[in-house]
Amino acid sequence: MTVSNVPSTLVKPAVGPVREPSAGVTAVPPAPGGAARRLPVRQLLCLLPLLLVTVVAVRHRSVLADGVAQLRGAEVPWLLAAVGATCLTWVAAAVTRQGAVVQRLPGRRLLAAQFAAGAANHLLPTGLGASAVNLRFMSVCGVPLARSSAALALYLLAEGVARVGLLTALLLAFPDALRLGPLLPGGSFGPLLAALATVALVAAGALACVRRLRAAVCSFLRTALGEARSVHSRPARALALWGGSLAFPLLQAAGFAAVGQALRLPVPAAHMAVAYVAATVAVALVPTPGGIGSVEAALVVALVAAGGPVAVATAVVLGYRIITVWLPLVPGALTLAALVRMKIV
Questions:
Q1: How far apart are CA 167 and CA 280, in angstroms?
Q2: What phi, psi does 248 have (nearest 5°)?
Q3: What are 82-120's pLDDT values in tens digits?
Q4: In 160-177, which positions are buried (b, 16+ CB within 10 angstroms) versus exposed (e)?
Q5: pLDDT reported for residue 152
Q6: How far is CA 268 from CA 53, 92, 291, in A?
Q7: Contact present, 154 and 100 (Cβ < 8 Å)
């Protein structure tokens, strides 16, 4: 029997026949939000730090120009010492961050995150940029949000206590370093206490009246206290926390004193350190991006109170801010963008 005589019902169809869609079935159009979902959100976030750096630099271009002009006649070895002290501040910040959490964090990524956090801190109100970067970094490292928030609060507490303690020790060691008259104008102490008391009363009233807020605060405090006990039960973590918190302002003050020496400011280095720590404590509650503006003014006033001429004091402050803020700003923003792209933060 030939193939032509085989009934058509016994002939198997070819494998994988092409089937036409039935007349009643129509193609589903793409969702209207598909294009929005395909937007490169992470790539756009990578560009955001550079955009903010450009905006801040344009707004403060006169400060940049004056600072660069003042540094042209400075002594280079002292400027290099200031740059070295500034670089060590990121190491101190990384050590302190590790000391504030029990879980082991990756060292190189932690250091890179502190460099990037420094740039973010100068682009957002004081403390918010660095806090956001570090919270995200710890979350990616697997630290729960409650514990990472508690670690952040412990870090801020240790840094504040260490800075105020350092200022107290310096004032006791060098009681004549500052003339408090220019720093505390007449009649300013009473309004300052009144403002602090008002803030405390408002916070207490909110806690007393809003039950959910009170419950959230109590829960956070329990977590924070538990994290603090866990950290201090490990000597290495406690040493890193408090040692790094003390080293951070010391390195900043050392860099500031080095710039003063580079520009031949007629103020002893120890007195410059007192002036720096006092000025940074004074502006700690000022919500400006990175303290830009408020820190410069406070530092100039503190140096004048320490006995420095106004013109040279202004030059020292501008030069110091160039080294610590503006030079690392673009590399820090690039590092932040890279960490965002690699999903490290």
A1: 10
A2: -60, -55
A3: 999 999 999 999 999 999 999 999 999 999 999 999 888
A4: eebbeebbeebbeeeeeb
A5: 92
A6: 35, 25, 25
A7: yes
Query: What is the number of other CB atoms lying within 10 angstroms of the CB of residue 139?
Result: 13
Q: Kindly give, in sequence order, each residue whose CB lies less than 8 Å from that of residue 173, ignoring residues fewer than 6 positions away.
A: 270
Question: Locate tokens 């107290």: which residue?
Answer: 168
Average pLDDT over residues 130-156: 92
Tell me if 90 sits within 8 A of 118, measured CB to CB: yes
At 36 the pLDDT is 47
- Helix ranges (H only) for the chain are 34-37, 41-59, 61-71, 76-99, 107-123, 128-140, 145-173, 180-183, 189-209, 211-232, 235-262, 269-282, 294-305, 310-321, 327-341
Give the tokens for residue 296. Answer: 């410069």
Q: pTM value?
A: 0.75
User: Model confidence over 58-76: pLDDT tens digits?
Assistant: 666 666 666 667 677 788 8
